[in-house]
From TrEMBL:
Record keywords, A-Z: Membrane, Transmembrane, Transmembrane helix
Protein name: Uncharacterized protein
Chain segments annotated as transmembrane: 30-50, 56-73, 94-113, 119-136
Origin superkingdom: Bacteria
Length: 192
């Protein structure tokens, strides 16, 4: 009898594991990709209507895909298992937030997006992520909502941004602080 070899997973499965999470259900994947595609379309339409060049519209479509889809992905049980288990969970969570330099890149390639806005929102989101990720489980949710509420108000009322790009910061905050940093039901204990 020959030993059985593990089945090789195809490129689509590996890509899904990367973009959604290992073990994502069909419905989690479907909903995440659908929302990502809608986000890409909405962002492209907004950018085109604002008169941005084709390269900027394409960048906005990619950002829309990532932010809209990522907000849904981060709310799934499979993504929660990926980021909220193990001893290095807080470090993985903060690292994930730190890699989201979307607004800084936007300020770099689009002079209409102010550096002051990009830096303030990046620093505020990252600082909030450190506090939330290292907080006790009972404080994570209220801290995340307090930080998200504060950042959203600042983003839409205090910090300057072109009207066509005003959606970016709120969706990024929702994706990272409420979607990514809050554990899902499969990773919390004692809740019913």
């Amino acid at each position: 009898m020959t030993p059985s070899l593990p089945l090789s997973r195809g490129p689509a499965s590996r890509l899904n594991d990367l973009l959604i999470a290992p073990g994502a259900t069909r419905m989690e994947s479907w909903l995440s990709y659908l929302t990502a595609c809608v986000g890409a379309g909405v962002a492209a339409i907004i950018g085109a209507a604002a008169g941005y060049s084709v390269p900027i519209v394409l960048v906005l479509a990619v950002l829309g895909f990532d932010l809209f889809g990522g907000a849904v992905v981060n709310a799934t049980a499979s993504a929660s298992r990926r980021f909220h288990t193990g001893t290095a969970a807080a470090r993985r969570q903060v690292t994930f937030v730190a890699t989201h330099v979307h607004l800084l890149v936007l300020a770099l390639i689009l002079p209409a997006y102010p550096w002051s806005t990009a830096i303030a929102l990046y620093a505020g989101t990252l600082a909030a992520a450190v506090v939330i990720a290292t907080a006790s489980p009972t404080l994570k949710r209220p801290l995340a909502f307090a930080a998200a509420t504060g950042l959203l108000v600042v983003a839409v009322t205090v910090l300057p941004a072109p009207t066509a790009l005003a959606w970016l910061a709120p969706v990024l905050v929702l994706k990272l602080l409420l979607g990514h940093l809050l554990p899902g039901p499969s990773t919390t204990r004692g809740t019913s």
